Amino acid sequence: MTVRSNAIRLEKQLRRIFDNHEKYFWEKSDPLVPLKVLNNMDWYEQFGIVDFLQEVGRHLRMNAMISRQSVKTRLDGSGLSFTEFTYQAMQAYDWLHLFRKFKCRVQIGGNDQIGNIVTGHDLLSRAENTQVYGLTVPLVTAESGDKYGKSAGNALWLDPEMTLPFDLHQFFLRLPDPIAETFLRLFSFLPQSQVEQLVENHLLAPEKRIPHKYLAENVVTLVHGVEGLQSAQRATEALFQNSAEALCDMSQDELSCLLRGAPQVSLLLKPGTTILDAAMQAKCFLTERDAHRIITSGGFYVNQRKVTNPNIVLIEGEHILPNRMTVARVGKKSHVLIRWAI
Protein backbone atom coordinates (compact mmCIF):
# COMPACT_ATOMS: atom_id res chain seq x y z
CA MET A 1 0.00 0.00 0.00
CA THR A 2 2.87 2.39 0.83
CA VAL A 3 4.57 1.73 -2.53
CA ARG A 4 1.32 2.35 -4.42
CA SER A 5 0.52 5.54 -2.50
CA ASN A 6 4.08 6.81 -3.03
CA ALA A 7 3.75 6.14 -6.76
CA ILE A 8 0.51 8.12 -6.87
CA ARG A 9 2.12 11.07 -5.08
CA LEU A 10 5.18 10.97 -7.34
CA GLU A 11 2.99 11.10 -10.43
CA LYS A 12 1.05 14.01 -8.98
CA GLN A 13 4.28 15.93 -8.33
CA LEU A 14 5.64 15.26 -11.81
CA ARG A 15 2.41 16.32 -13.48
CA ARG A 16 2.36 19.53 -11.42
CA ILE A 17 5.90 20.40 -12.57
CA PHE A 18 5.09 19.75 -16.23
CA ASP A 19 1.85 21.73 -15.95
CA ASN A 20 3.68 24.65 -14.32
CA HIS A 21 6.37 24.54 -16.99
CA GLU A 22 3.81 24.80 -19.76
CA LYS A 23 1.83 27.47 -17.90
CA TYR A 24 4.65 29.76 -16.76
CA PHE A 25 7.75 29.00 -18.87
CA TRP A 26 6.76 27.61 -22.28
CA GLU A 27 6.83 30.52 -24.72
CA LYS A 28 6.42 28.79 -28.06
CA SER A 29 3.11 28.68 -29.89
CA ASP A 30 3.14 24.91 -30.36
CA PRO A 31 1.72 23.01 -27.39
CA LEU A 32 3.93 20.57 -25.51
CA VAL A 33 3.55 16.85 -26.06
CA PRO A 34 1.35 15.53 -23.22
CA LEU A 35 3.23 13.91 -20.35
CA LYS A 36 2.90 10.14 -20.07
CA VAL A 37 3.68 8.63 -16.64
CA LEU A 38 3.90 4.84 -16.44
CA ASN A 39 4.22 2.40 -13.54
CA ASN A 40 6.34 -0.65 -14.31
CA MET A 41 4.11 -2.74 -12.06
CA ASP A 42 1.65 -2.64 -14.97
CA TRP A 43 3.91 -5.05 -16.90
CA TYR A 44 5.61 -6.87 -14.03
CA GLU A 45 2.42 -8.00 -12.25
CA GLN A 46 1.75 -10.65 -14.89
CA PHE A 47 5.42 -11.39 -15.66
CA GLY A 48 6.61 -14.54 -13.86
CA ILE A 49 10.23 -15.12 -12.86
CA VAL A 50 10.64 -18.00 -15.33
CA ASP A 51 9.30 -15.87 -18.17
CA PHE A 52 11.58 -13.01 -17.11
CA LEU A 53 14.67 -15.22 -17.12
CA GLN A 54 13.76 -16.64 -20.52
CA GLU A 55 12.93 -13.24 -22.02
CA VAL A 56 15.66 -11.12 -20.43
CA GLY A 57 18.22 -13.28 -18.66
CA ARG A 58 19.46 -15.06 -21.77
CA HIS A 59 20.54 -11.73 -23.29
CA LEU A 60 22.53 -10.49 -20.27
CA ARG A 61 26.14 -11.42 -19.53
CA MET A 62 27.26 -11.92 -15.92
CA ASN A 63 30.82 -10.72 -16.51
CA ALA A 64 29.52 -7.41 -17.88
CA MET A 65 27.00 -6.96 -15.04
CA ILE A 66 29.61 -7.70 -12.36
CA SER A 67 32.08 -5.31 -13.96
CA ARG A 68 29.78 -2.30 -13.44
CA GLN A 69 31.50 0.14 -11.09
CA SER A 70 28.46 0.39 -8.81
CA VAL A 71 28.47 -3.40 -8.39
CA LYS A 72 32.25 -3.73 -7.94
CA THR A 73 32.27 -1.05 -5.24
CA ARG A 74 29.61 -2.88 -3.23
CA LEU A 75 31.19 -6.30 -3.70
CA ASP A 76 34.51 -4.96 -2.44
CA GLY A 77 32.81 -3.35 0.53
CA SER A 78 29.72 -4.31 2.53
CA GLY A 79 28.42 -6.72 -0.09
CA LEU A 80 25.44 -6.72 -2.45
CA SER A 81 22.14 -8.52 -2.13
CA PHE A 82 20.69 -10.46 -5.05
CA THR A 83 17.75 -8.05 -5.11
CA GLU A 84 20.08 -5.08 -5.56
CA PHE A 85 22.16 -6.94 -8.16
CA THR A 86 19.11 -7.71 -10.33
CA TYR A 87 17.93 -4.10 -10.28
CA GLN A 88 19.94 -3.35 -13.43
CA ALA A 89 18.24 -6.26 -15.22
CA MET A 90 14.79 -4.92 -14.35
CA GLN A 91 15.70 -1.37 -15.36
CA ALA A 92 17.04 -2.77 -18.62
CA TYR A 93 13.78 -4.60 -19.30
CA ASP A 94 11.80 -1.45 -18.52
CA TRP A 95 13.61 0.21 -21.42
CA LEU A 96 13.00 -2.80 -23.67
CA HIS A 97 9.28 -2.70 -22.85
CA LEU A 98 9.10 1.05 -23.51
CA PHE A 99 10.90 0.60 -26.82
CA ARG A 100 8.53 -2.11 -27.96
CA LYS A 101 5.42 -0.21 -26.97
CA PHE A 102 6.41 3.44 -27.49
CA LYS A 103 9.60 3.31 -29.59
CA CYS A 104 11.54 4.89 -26.71
CA ARG A 105 15.16 5.16 -27.91
CA VAL A 106 16.64 7.48 -25.26
CA GLN A 107 17.08 6.93 -21.52
CA ILE A 108 18.20 9.80 -19.28
CA GLY A 109 19.58 9.36 -15.78
CA GLY A 110 22.08 10.67 -13.27
CA ASN A 111 25.76 9.83 -13.59
CA ASP A 112 25.32 7.10 -10.99
CA GLN A 113 22.89 5.31 -13.36
CA ILE A 114 25.44 4.78 -16.13
CA GLY A 115 25.85 1.06 -15.37
CA ASN A 116 22.11 0.37 -15.45
CA ILE A 117 21.70 2.38 -18.65
CA VAL A 118 24.54 0.47 -20.35
CA THR A 119 22.88 -2.83 -19.34
CA GLY A 120 19.67 -1.62 -20.98
CA HIS A 121 21.58 -0.54 -24.07
CA ASP A 122 23.14 -4.01 -24.32
CA LEU A 123 19.77 -5.72 -23.85
CA LEU A 124 18.08 -3.74 -26.63
CA SER A 125 21.02 -4.27 -28.96
CA ARG A 126 20.75 -8.04 -28.55
CA ALA A 127 16.98 -8.46 -28.24
CA GLU A 128 15.92 -5.96 -30.90
CA ASN A 129 19.09 -5.43 -32.94
CA THR A 130 18.49 -1.68 -32.81
CA GLN A 131 20.44 1.42 -31.88
CA VAL A 132 19.40 3.26 -28.69
CA TYR A 133 21.04 6.01 -26.69
CA GLY A 134 21.77 6.73 -23.03
CA LEU A 135 22.27 10.24 -21.66
CA THR A 136 23.60 10.95 -18.17
CA VAL A 137 23.46 14.24 -16.30
CA PRO A 138 25.64 15.45 -13.40
CA LEU A 139 24.49 14.65 -9.90
CA VAL A 140 23.45 17.69 -7.88
CA THR A 141 26.02 18.17 -5.14
CA ALA A 142 26.61 20.59 -2.30
CA GLU A 143 29.72 22.78 -2.04
CA SER A 144 31.45 19.92 -0.20
CA GLY A 145 30.92 17.67 -3.21
CA ASP A 146 28.46 15.41 -1.35
CA LYS A 147 25.14 14.47 -2.90
CA TYR A 148 21.91 15.98 -1.64
CA GLY A 149 19.64 13.33 -0.18
CA LYS A 150 18.08 11.59 2.80
CA SER A 151 21.28 9.91 3.94
CA ALA A 152 23.11 13.25 4.00
CA GLY A 153 20.25 14.90 5.88
CA ASN A 154 19.85 17.67 3.31
CA ALA A 155 17.12 16.30 1.04
CA LEU A 156 14.81 18.69 -0.77
CA TRP A 157 11.39 17.24 -1.55
CA LEU A 158 8.93 18.14 -4.30
CA ASP A 159 6.05 17.45 -1.90
CA PRO A 160 5.06 20.72 -0.15
CA GLU A 161 4.18 18.74 2.97
CA MET A 162 7.80 17.59 3.26
CA THR A 163 9.61 20.71 2.01
CA LEU A 164 7.59 23.91 2.29
CA PRO A 165 7.67 26.34 -0.64
CA PHE A 166 9.20 28.78 1.87
CA ASP A 167 12.03 26.36 2.73
CA LEU A 168 12.72 25.65 -0.95
CA HIS A 169 12.78 29.41 -1.60
CA GLN A 170 15.19 29.98 1.28
CA PHE A 171 17.46 27.14 0.12
CA PHE A 172 18.17 28.91 -3.17
CA LEU A 173 18.45 32.36 -1.58
CA ARG A 174 21.18 31.07 0.76
CA LEU A 175 23.29 29.22 -1.80
CA PRO A 176 27.04 29.95 -1.86
CA ASP A 177 27.88 32.04 -4.92
CA PRO A 178 29.75 29.30 -6.88
CA ILE A 179 26.87 26.85 -6.35
CA ALA A 180 24.31 29.48 -7.40
CA GLU A 181 26.08 29.90 -10.73
CA THR A 182 26.16 26.13 -11.27
CA PHE A 183 22.51 25.76 -10.33
CA LEU A 184 21.53 28.53 -12.75
CA ARG A 185 22.80 26.30 -15.55
CA LEU A 186 21.05 23.22 -14.16
CA PHE A 187 17.70 24.54 -12.96
CA SER A 188 16.81 27.46 -15.20
CA PHE A 189 15.62 27.61 -18.80
CA LEU A 190 17.89 30.56 -19.57
CA PRO A 191 20.27 30.54 -22.53
CA GLN A 192 23.97 30.66 -21.71
CA SER A 193 24.23 34.37 -22.51
CA GLN A 194 21.58 35.33 -19.96
CA VAL A 195 23.16 33.11 -17.30
CA GLU A 196 26.45 34.90 -17.83
CA GLN A 197 24.69 38.28 -17.63
CA LEU A 198 23.11 37.37 -14.28
CA VAL A 199 26.49 36.26 -12.94
CA GLU A 200 28.10 39.49 -14.16
CA ASN A 201 25.36 41.56 -12.49
CA HIS A 202 26.00 39.66 -9.27
CA LEU A 203 29.71 40.48 -9.37
CA LEU A 204 28.84 44.19 -9.68
CA ALA A 205 26.34 44.10 -6.78
CA PRO A 206 26.77 40.90 -4.73
CA GLU A 207 24.61 42.21 -1.88
CA LYS A 208 21.54 42.06 -4.17
CA ARG A 209 21.99 38.28 -4.73
CA ILE A 210 20.45 38.56 -8.19
CA PRO A 211 21.13 34.97 -9.37
CA HIS A 212 19.93 33.56 -6.04
CA LYS A 213 16.63 35.46 -6.24
CA TYR A 214 16.10 34.42 -9.84
CA LEU A 215 16.64 30.77 -8.93
CA ALA A 216 14.44 30.94 -5.83
CA GLU A 217 11.52 32.53 -7.69
CA ASN A 218 11.70 30.38 -10.79
CA VAL A 219 12.32 27.00 -9.16
CA VAL A 220 9.53 27.53 -6.62
CA THR A 221 7.21 28.60 -9.45
CA LEU A 222 8.14 25.51 -11.46
CA VAL A 223 7.59 23.13 -8.52
CA HIS A 224 4.68 24.80 -6.71
CA GLY A 225 3.21 27.34 -9.14
CA VAL A 226 2.61 31.05 -8.59
CA GLU A 227 0.54 30.29 -5.50
CA GLY A 228 3.50 28.49 -3.91
CA LEU A 229 5.82 31.38 -4.75
CA GLN A 230 3.42 33.92 -3.25
CA SER A 231 3.16 31.79 -0.10
CA ALA A 232 6.97 31.67 0.17
CA GLN A 233 7.24 35.42 -0.35
CA ARG A 234 4.60 36.14 2.29
CA ALA A 235 6.44 33.94 4.76
CA THR A 236 9.76 35.63 3.92
CA GLU A 237 8.29 39.08 4.48
CA ALA A 238 6.63 38.01 7.71
CA LEU A 239 9.75 36.43 9.20
CA PHE A 240 12.62 38.51 7.89
CA GLN A 241 11.04 41.87 7.17
CA ASN A 242 8.77 41.86 10.24
CA SER A 243 5.80 42.55 7.98
CA ALA A 244 2.49 42.54 9.82
CA GLU A 245 0.73 42.98 6.46
CA ALA A 246 2.24 39.73 5.19
CA LEU A 247 0.98 37.92 8.29
CA CYS A 248 -2.54 39.20 7.58
CA ASP A 249 -2.46 37.58 4.15
CA MET A 250 -1.41 34.16 5.43
CA SER A 251 -3.80 31.28 6.06
CA GLN A 252 -3.86 29.23 9.25
CA ASP A 253 -2.12 26.34 7.48
CA GLU A 254 0.61 28.62 6.12
CA LEU A 255 1.30 30.09 9.54
CA SER A 256 1.26 26.69 11.22
CA CYS A 257 3.73 25.28 8.69
CA LEU A 258 5.95 28.36 8.83
CA LEU A 259 6.18 28.21 12.63
CA ARG A 260 6.03 24.43 12.84
CA GLY A 261 8.84 24.32 15.39
CA ALA A 262 7.14 26.82 17.70
CA PRO A 263 4.62 25.99 20.45
CA GLN A 264 1.01 26.30 19.30
CA VAL A 265 -1.88 26.82 21.72
CA SER A 266 -5.64 27.22 21.40
CA LEU A 267 -7.27 29.85 23.63
CA LEU A 268 -10.81 31.02 24.20
CA LEU A 269 -11.15 34.72 23.38
CA LYS A 270 -13.04 36.39 26.21
CA PRO A 271 -14.17 40.03 26.26
CA GLY A 272 -11.53 42.27 27.80
CA THR A 273 -8.60 39.88 27.25
CA THR A 274 -5.38 41.88 27.55
CA ILE A 275 -1.90 41.45 26.13
CA LEU A 276 -0.77 40.21 29.55
CA ASP A 277 -3.67 37.74 29.79
CA ALA A 278 -2.88 36.29 26.36
CA ALA A 279 0.86 36.08 27.04
CA MET A 280 0.39 34.26 30.34
CA GLN A 281 -2.25 31.86 29.00
CA ALA A 282 0.03 31.04 26.06
CA LYS A 283 2.90 30.40 28.51
CA CYS A 284 5.14 33.02 26.93
CA PHE A 285 6.46 33.85 30.41
CA LEU A 286 7.00 31.92 33.62
CA THR A 287 5.63 34.65 35.91
CA GLU A 288 3.61 37.85 35.59
CA ARG A 289 6.58 39.71 37.02
CA ASP A 290 8.73 38.51 34.10
CA ALA A 291 5.95 39.39 31.69
CA HIS A 292 5.62 42.97 32.98
CA ARG A 293 9.37 43.50 32.93
CA ILE A 294 9.97 42.17 29.39
CA ILE A 295 6.84 43.69 27.81
CA THR A 296 7.42 47.17 29.25
CA SER A 297 11.09 47.07 28.22
CA GLY A 298 10.16 46.38 24.58
CA GLY A 299 10.98 42.68 24.34
CA PHE A 300 7.51 41.42 23.37
CA TYR A 301 5.94 41.43 19.90
CA VAL A 302 2.44 40.68 18.68
CA ASN A 303 2.15 39.99 14.96
CA GLN A 304 5.64 41.44 14.45
CA ARG A 305 4.76 44.73 16.17
CA LYS A 306 6.38 45.72 19.44
CA VAL A 307 3.93 46.00 22.34
CA THR A 308 5.02 47.82 25.52
CA ASN A 309 1.73 48.13 27.42
CA PRO A 310 0.67 44.82 29.00
CA ASN A 311 -2.80 46.15 29.84
CA ILE A 312 -3.95 46.85 26.27
CA VAL A 313 -7.10 44.92 25.39
CA LEU A 314 -6.73 42.70 22.31
CA ILE A 315 -8.16 44.25 19.15
CA GLU A 316 -9.28 42.13 16.22
CA GLY A 317 -7.44 43.04 13.04
CA GLU A 318 -4.45 44.30 15.00
CA HIS A 319 -3.66 41.74 17.68
CA ILE A 320 -5.80 39.00 16.15
CA LEU A 321 -5.21 38.27 12.47
CA PRO A 322 -8.05 37.70 9.98
CA ASN A 323 -7.27 33.96 10.16
CA ARG A 324 -8.12 34.00 13.91
CA MET A 325 -4.47 33.60 14.96
CA THR A 326 -1.86 35.64 16.82
CA VAL A 327 1.90 35.36 16.47
CA ALA A 328 3.52 36.21 19.81
CA ARG A 329 7.28 36.62 20.04
CA VAL A 330 9.54 37.07 23.03
CA GLY A 331 12.88 38.57 22.05
CA LYS A 332 14.23 37.80 18.58
CA LYS A 333 13.34 34.16 17.98
CA SER A 334 11.01 32.70 20.62
CA HIS A 335 7.61 32.40 18.89
CA VAL A 336 4.28 31.13 20.16
CA LEU A 337 1.34 30.67 17.79
CA ILE A 338 -2.10 31.28 19.31
CA ARG A 339 -5.34 30.03 17.76
CA TRP A 340 -8.40 31.89 19.02
CA ALA A 341 -11.80 30.35 19.57
CA ILE A 342 -14.86 32.49 20.21
TrEMBL record:
GO terms for molecular function: ATP binding; RNA binding; tyrosine-tRNA ligase activity. Signal peptide: none annotated. GO terms for cellular component: cytosol; mitochondrion. It catalyses: tRNA(Tyr) + L-tyrosine + ATP = L-tyrosyl-tRNA(Tyr) + AMP + diphosphate + H(+). Residues 259-338 form the Tyrosine--tRNA ligase SYY-like C-terminal domain. Gene3D superfamilies: HUPs, RNA-binding S4 domain, Tyrosyl-Transfer RNA Synthetase. It comes from the Eukaryota. Its EC number is 6.1.1.1. It holds the Pfam family tRNA-synt_1b. Keywords: Aminoacyl-tRNA synthetase, ATP-binding, Ligase, Nucleotide-binding, Protein biosynthesis, RNA-binding. It is an enzyme of class 6 (ligase). One of its GO terms (biological process) is tyrosyl-tRNA aminoacylation. PANTHER family: TYROSINE--TRNA LIGASE, MITOCHONDRIAL, TYROSYL-TRNA SYNTHETASE. Belongs to the class-I aminoacyl-tRNA synthetase family. This is Tyrosine--tRNA ligase.
